[in-house]
Amino acid sequence: MPSPTRRLRVAILGGGPSALFMYKRLIESGRNDLCIEIFERSSQLGAGMPYSAAGARVEHVTNVSGNEIPTLITSLPEWLKTQPLERLEQFQIDPHQVSPYHVVPRLLFGQYLAAQFDLLQQRALVRGLETQVHFNCAVTDLRDEPTSQTIWVETADQHQRNVDVVIVCTGHYWPTSHEGKVPGYFDSPYPPTKLALTLNHPVAIRGASLTAIDAIRTLARYNGHFENDATGQLRYYRSEAVPDFQMVMHSRQGLLPAIRFHLDEPLISQDDQLSPDMIAANRQQNQGFLSLDFVFDKVFKETLRKKDPVFYNRIREMNLEAFVDAIMGMREQQDPFVLFANEYQQAEQSIRKHESIHWKETLAVLSYALNYPAKYFSAEDSQRLKKVLMPLISIVIAFVPQQSARELLALHQAGVLTLKTAGEDSTVTPHPEGGATYYNPEDTDQPQSVHYQTFVDCIGQPHLAFEDFPFKTLIRDQTISRARLRYQSDEAGLTALRQGNQDVEQLADGAFYLTVPGLAINDDFQVVGPQGQSNPRLYIMAVPHIGGYNPDYSGLDFAEAASARIGKHLLQIDHAQTNA
Fold it and tell me: Where in the chain is the domain with CATH 3.50.50.60?
């Protein structure tokens, strides 16, 4: 780390929302000895993938409102009121109707985040902090040098820069497998301009997430149009040129995501997490592991007992599995679009009356609370989280915007949008001549094998494997290590190993471990080496690469909380070392 006579050189890789919150922490730290370099592969700061042309078109809207955004320099409603009228008209926003509950187009939200970045840079300048931004500059590799306590940043133009600390904020990443090789096969719907297609045939949409809704809204506009009828009901009309255009979603649960409703506490805070003392106490009682059942009872049940006693009494005797079975069972008994329409009405009433749907809001809090200490779960509980709880969480806290919900219902009513349940054994095989073939052996009512000329994979941001980490020198030099979770029961670990689970291994300590996606990190988001040592020079906020230890993508909430943790640890450690 640097001596007191020179500046602390901090490199932030990526310039999207995570970098914005991290930069804010550094600027507001009170330190005047920082030299900050930001490496952004595009020409814009703040927006990242979701809120730029790389991830959105004019039809795509945020699933958070102004009052759900962690504090920046100016609030979203304040910023909107200062914008030129022509900019707001471009996005069909009436400046007189702007409120903290406003949901805006993602491209406009990206402009808001970019403006916040500009304001932070101005503050940095006033405070004498040096900021250097490298636009259109992709970082291709990192090399750590423990001897000199520095780290090298290599960019696509083959330039290398030596810094003291790197914070990886590279954001979303979708690997490609068949796209570009197989016509009509798309590994993701991003950038959405590639789906600006006129298609006179059924299109397969894999998944029913917000990612799928992005694809659906774009495809719908290029093959028809929406308009309100005389009663104000939204209708969809397919273009006469594409009478065979349809969209077929394939979902594992056979369910649509839940819809935005009023949140009593829109900003999830540190108070919604288990305290370090509570985590430590439970681990001490549980062989060093944090119990998933303890978190479920403490965060979810106890909160509901206070906020919604009636619902609590319905589930008070249920364990995690029983609760999920009950909720999923109720949802699966109904036609997914009937359920979706009913939930739309419930959500509208919730927003109109400013009354939360408490169990759904508390489930969002639980998801947030699970994320940070997930590295302390046993392998058994991690698998339970992934297989039992996360499928429910992914549906309920998607918070589909009302506008998107209305369009899905209009498309279904027009006979253009349907949903199929994809069984556990279903497969997707790229077709040599284009598109893909969906094989679903559990479907006894329909043909089990269906070929689609166009296929769009919309399962959302995947948790990336350790091998997918882009900075290969860190892997080669063993600067980083795989994320692993130990089995609490040696018998369970041995059984999984004997059954051929390739993610299970027995290490030198004799215990059995489950390899989970991505890199190992500590509580302060520092990478951890093979011997368990934390690296004081390298922090990571890129959620696709830490999915094993941070399984829930919490968006702006995650960026705000993680940046706070990193900022506090980084500057305290540096202060201690420079004054030693």
Answer: 8-173+520-578, 185-257+402-457
- CA dist 127 and 223 (Å) reads 53
Report residue 384 CA to chain centroid gap. Answer: 20
Q: What is the end-to-end Cα distance of the chain in Å, rounded? A: 11
Quick one: pLDDT band at residue 65, thresholds 50, 70, 90? confident
Beta strands in 169-325 (DSSP E): 185-186, 202-206, 224-228, 234-238, 246-251
Specify whether the backbone of 391 is left (phi greater than 0), alpha (psi in -120 to 50) or beta: alpha
Mean pLDDT of 65-85: 91
pLDDT score at 562: 92
- The answer for residues whose C-beta is within 8 angstroms of residue 113's C-beta and 6 or more apart is 16, 17, 20, 46, 47, 48, 51, 72
Mean pLDDT along residues 248-269: 88
C-alpha span between 309 and 317 (Å, rounded): 13
DSSP conformational letter for 498? H
Residue position matching structure tokens 């027009």: 414
Whether the per-residue pLDDT at 268 is higher than 70: the answer is no
Exposed / middle / buried, residue 149 (Cβ in 10 Å: 0-12, 13-18, 19+): middle
Average pLDDT, the chain: 92
- Binned at pLDDT 50, 70 and 90, residue 253 comes out as confident
Q: Is the pLDDT of residue 498 over 90?
A: yes
Query: What values do phi and psi take at 67, rounded to 5?
Result: -80, -5
Q: Is 288 exposed, middle or buried (0-12, 13-18, 19+ CB in 10 A)?
A: exposed
Angle among Cα 72, 76, 78 to the nearest 5 degrees reads 100
pLDDT at 461: 84
Q: Give the C-alpha separation, 61 to 72, whole Å.
A: 20
Phi/psi for 155 (5° steps) reads -110, 170
pLDDT value of position 174:
84
Closest CA to 63 of 445, 460, 457: 460
Domain 8-173+520-578 sits in CATH at 3.50.50.60
Where on the phi/psi map is residue 550: left (φ > 0), alpha (ψ -120 to 50), or beta?
A: beta
Q: Whose structure tokens read 């005797």?
A: 317
Residue found under tokens 């979203």? 76
The residue-averaged pLDDT of 15-20 equals 96
* Chain segment 415-429, per-residue pLDDT in tens: 999 999 988 888 999
CA angle, corner 481, sides to 164 and 139, nearest 5? 45
Helix (H) or strand (E) holding 563: helix 555-578
Q: What are phi and psi of 110, to 5 degrees?
A: -60, -40
User: In a 10 Å sphere around its CB, with 0-12 CB exposed, 13-18 middle and 19+ buried, how is residue 235 labelled?
Assistant: middle
Extended strands (E) in 164-310: 165-168, 185-186, 202-206, 224-228, 234-238, 246-251
Most confident range, picked from 282-291, 324-333, 549-558: 282-291
Residues in the chain, how many? 580
Q: Please tell me the distance from the alpha carbon of residue 18 to that of residue 273, in angstroms, as a whole number.
A: 20
CATH 3.40.50.2300 fits 185-257+402-457, yes or no: no
